[in-house]
Amino acid sequence: MTATTAEKMTETPSNRLGDRIFSGLALAAGLSILVALTGVFAFLLIRGWQGLSQDASFYDAPRANDFLHYVWPLVFGTVYAAVIALVIAVPLSIGIALVISHYAPRRLATPIAYVIDLLAAVPSVVFGLWGILVFAPAMVPTYGWLDDHLGFIPLFAGNEGGGVNPVGRTILTAGIVLAIMVLPIITSITREIFAQTPRLHQEAALALGATRWEMIRYAVFPYARSGMVSAVMLGLGRALGETMAVAMVLSAGKSLVTFNLLGNESSTTIAANIASNYKEGTPGKVAVLIATGLVLFVLTFVVNFLARLIVARAERNTTR
Amino acid sequence: MSTLQSPRTSGLVSDLTAGKLPRFAPALAAVIALGIGALAALLIGGGLLATVLFAAVAFLVVLPAWYAVVEGRRAAVDRLVTCLVWSALAVALVPLVSLLWTVVHHGARQLDATFLGQDAFITALHQPTGILHAIVGTLLITLTAAVMSVPLGIFAAIYLIEYGAGSKLAAAIRFLVDVMTGIPSIVAGLFAFALFTLLFGPAYRSGLAGAAALSLLMVPIVVRSTEEMLRLVPNELREAAYALGTPKWRTIVKVVLPTALGGIVTGVTLATARVVGETAPLLLTAAITTKVNLNVFDGFMTTLPVMVYSSQAKGHPEDFDVAWGAALVLVLIVLVLNIVARIVGKIFAPKTGH
Question: Strand locations in chain A, DSSP E?
Fold first, then answer.
């Protein structure tokens, strides 16, 4: 009896209509995300298409006469700065994640995690401001020392005829600032995964007489390997796309292909190049910049795509 | 017999701690390392910073070496890793402390009624300027972005959890949302720039275009956090509502969403805090002005991050001061949003336990 009344109630037209509207709205919202993502690609393609084949004067005329020669040094600079950032950030963030998950007592671990998250909340423009006004000048003596003592390595060669960038605004500075910015991302993902390592594995290792480091090496790291890889890739995606900090530190950066870390002439990144050149604003130049933006979009999309794919596969493996 | 008793009778070391370093060993090693560091700094040259650096390196050598001699290689490696891991934390805290200190130190001097209550539009020479226009612009653009992306994000999450659960489309959307969280902010800015200049002419700049770019960055964060929260709502609640004959949409509105409200508000606040600090997209879409502009739909609009960037780019020391002041206000806004998110999360935290 009650079942039939309930059935009748749900079958009233207003309820069915409400349900249809609501599910329609939800579906539309979900689909709009697909539309937005394709829209980003489509609009960048539409506006950037002409930028792919412009007159040579719209590129960096003497240095680059077509799009490929224009964008290649920028792609190089983008990847180079991101790699510098990762080389510094990955060991540090794995260390910090271990402190939070395994080394610090619980009372200390929560505040440490909170402080590291605070680092993620600082806007990138503030990092840029700090990088250019405080950090870069502070690094000049160190760079000088590196140039004096390790100058025989091409990375630290500095300028031709000796000396380093007098204001410290080098790609190494940009890379270190980027490292500080991606550190909290990598830390937060790896610490989650370290914390998920099965307790029994760890206790079994300790019971066999392993030291704490051997337990981490043989029980925690193998379990967390794919998660660590994807965390690094996500950090890479962030470092590739970061704009303001690099644009501010490397405001004099040129589109060059050079591995030199300390010299006056350094490469710059796609994002920083867009931010510092968009003001010149002739339609032809803007089209070229949008086309480089498209390249950056594809680059980060592929990196993020791979990272998420690794995460998804790891999740499937652990649930099985 | 006598061999068994000899360690006991010696009275200095017990059986359990034989062959182990005493507990004060790390402290002693630290003192030795500090001495070595000071000596090295004196010999090679360098200030306090160099002393600390040398001491840290010396500590990383002395302590494991001592362990290696007394307890063997494995204990030494273990101790070395412990030291390295903690020093990674110390190294990461240095820039954070330095950054917060400089922002507060340089910025606090700027904060007064003129700085906060006036825009930068000058009608007379030597007129004091402020950042009111940037504060207003930040609040308006962020609010517009939130208005656009919060309903969209929540509805998308509802689709993912309630309607499309298990379907291929939902899986695809979830994957793309994840990928979307990694879109570089400058690309979002270029997209909004390309879209709005195509629609309204090449010179069109407005707060709305900036907000559109920001919402592209904000939607995926809102979707992800809302989705997590909806997933936490126990299925029994939904089934109880269905059993009473409540239609699905009323169940969602009256049961599911209220249960998850705290988490959703926290997620939205954190997403807002994340986009408040975005610079690059607004640089492209909302441009720079010196006057207060209350119309989101038309006209240039400056936000605090753009203000920080443009003041710094001018390159005079007094402009740097403005940049520090604006940066402090920006950091304070982000901090307040984060604290609000935490408090809301605490208040509405789902009551666990049966």
Answer: none
Where in chain B are the domains? 21-108, 132-347
Q: Do residues B142 and B273 make contact, with C-beta atoms less than 8 angstroms apart? A: no
Q: Of A19, A103, A290, which has the smallest distance from its Cβ to B85's Cβ?
A: A103
Burial class (CB in 10 A: 0-12, 13-18, 19+), A137: middle
If one looks up domain A56-319 in CATH, what number appears?
1.10.3720.10
pTM: 0.86
CB contact under 8 A, B178 and A132: no
Q: What is the mean pLDDT of residues B164-190?
A: 88
Whether residues B99 and A293 touch (CB distance < 8 A) is answered with no
- Distance (Å) from the C-alpha of residue A144 to the closest C-alpha of chain B? 14
- pLDDT for B293 equals 82
- Residue B46, pLDDT score: 65
ipTM of the complex: 0.84
A30 → closest Cβ in B159, B278, B308: B159
Confidence of residue B47 (pLDDT cuts 50, 70, 90): low
> Which residue ranges make up each domain of chain A?
1-53, 56-319
For B132-347, which CATH class? mainly alpha
| DSSP 8-state code for residue B23 | T
Instruction: Determine the Cα–Cα distance for residues B345 and B348; give it in Å rounded to an integer.
Output: 5
Torsion of CA A142, A145, A151, A156, to 10 degrees: 0
